[in-house]
Amino acid sequence: MNLTLRDFDWHRWRLVILGGAIIGTILICAIFAPWIAPYSPYDLDVMTMLQSPSGEHLLGTDELGRDLLSRTIFAARISMQVAFIAAGVGLIFGTLIGVAAGYFGGLVDLVLMRFMELLFSFPAILLAVVLMASLGTSILNAMIAIGIVFIPGFSRLARAATEVVLREQYVESARAIGMSHRRIVFVEILPNILAPLLVEAAVAFSYAILLESALSFLGLGAQPPEPSWGNMLNTGRGFMTQAPWLSIVPGAAIFLSVLGFNLIGDGLRDVLDPHMKE
Amino acid sequence: MTEPRQHALPDGLPTLRIRDLSIEFQRRRGAPLRMVDRVSIDIWPGEIVGVIGESGSGKTLTSLATLQMLPNRAAIAEGTIHLDDIPLQDRSERDMRALRGDRIALIPQDAMQSLNPTMRIGRQVGEPLELHSGLSSQRARQTVRKLLEAVHIREPEKRVQEYPHQFSGGMQQRAMIAMGLALNPQLLIADEPTTALDVTVQAQVLKLLREIRDDKGASIMFITHDLGIVAELCDWVYVMRNGQIVENGPTRRLFMAPQADYTRMLLDATLSIHTKPGVAQ
Predict the structure, then answer these.
(1) How far apart are CA A193 and CA A112, in angstroms?
(2) Phi, psi torsion values for B162, nearest 5 degrees
(3) All domains of chain B, ordered by start, with CATH?
(4) What is the ipTM of this complex?
(5) What pLDDT, on a 0 to 100 scale, did the predictor assign at position A1?
(6) Contact map slice: B 130-189 vs A, CB within 8 A
(7) Which fold has domain A13-31+68-276?
(8) pTM of the full predicted structure?
(9) Is the peptide bond before A224 cis (omega within 30 degrees of 0)?
(10) Record: contact A178-B69, CB cut-off 8 A
(11) Alpha helix ranges (H) inside B164-260
């Protein structure tokens, strides 16, 4: 069963690869930002403010003369951090709640799921704003708030998947050999509900980036001078006619990262779903 | 029950003794529905006992009650179940967990459905060992290899690395049997283990079950609706219908001289194909 490069089904994985290439590039930018960025994202230079793209400043400069390319690259750090931590929080807690509700059923299910519906009934951005208001504005709190927004979605998905797996014969067989509840959850259920959760996680990544940008745009996420695509977009708003690149560049960065994660999500869904074999 | 039992040890206890077992389903409205009605079954050490009957006759419920794994809305209304001298009814989940897989093993109907698709065969077959005897993973791996050899799976060293979907139907069923045998249980409950298999593989599985009985002295409760298999394999037969036992006796006698009308009907329904002259030509 040695898979060589030749056996690899490029066609089947094409969306994942395309999305992965986009996200991979952004990730590399985020991780190696200090080495890749041509300038510091914080250095002001009033002599060079609002310059259009040129050989010296590839994407131009902002209203304080900071290099836009460098700021965009550094902003990827925050966006990626938020995406991974928020989606991670949602995935872990949502899965725990959903599996518990699905596995134990009855009262546990009723209480947990009504609580999830309560969370679900708030518009995501409003819930995040409320959470930020009570937690205080910082990027860490933004991650937690966005993560909490994701919990109901993951928990519903995990609960539904758990109920499907619970009806499987192999769970009964596991009981018949004397497996404990905890072991059944970790060995039988979790590995078998992982696929839909991973697809959901990829979608959550892109949504987290959008939400973080929205919060930063509103001044609730990353605090200036910390660069974030959201607050860059917000300052760009004031210079739309003089310096349109101030809005276009962070907007394009948001667009690309959302596109990348969505491609990975769609691709994974097709690859992992046995019914969608072409 | 005056007929002598071939494999019975007269002084000992039966491996499994079910007495007047009734199982009821709770309904939302109205009286509970009685699915199994005062069923008594004995299985002696080294005996293969067939339980036959059409679907819905309560044979699977009876076996699930033995494992204390009845569906949520079903419950034992009366009766007792003993494994050796241990009463199984009303035993706590924790106590039952210690018995399941260790002293009573279930070989399910559909092996493909009964294997976790995300776990390698080796780990899966070794799971009872890990659960009950706390073997080190290396010792467990050796035992798994021997178990797979015992159920005639070739190249076990290679096969343990594979996932269930890489196994054929017959191999999956044999892997399930290997899992059931892992700890030499006293009682194997085989719930139509051959229904999903084609005839040649079926024969291998039956041979295997007979070997297990002969070599290890295990008792086997064989649930089926296939009279042909019963005739070939079982020492003693219980015939179930609508939750009751209509007749039981040694296989030979039951086939030669059935006493209950229902048994006769079952036999006629099967035998007519084989015994009509000219059909075979």
Answers:
(1) 19
(2) -90, 165
(3) 16-271 (3.40.50.300)
(4) 0.80
(5) 46
(6) 131-132, 176, 179
(7) MetI-like fold (1.10.3720)
(8) 0.80
(9) no
(10) no
(11) 169-181, 199-216, 227-233, 251-256
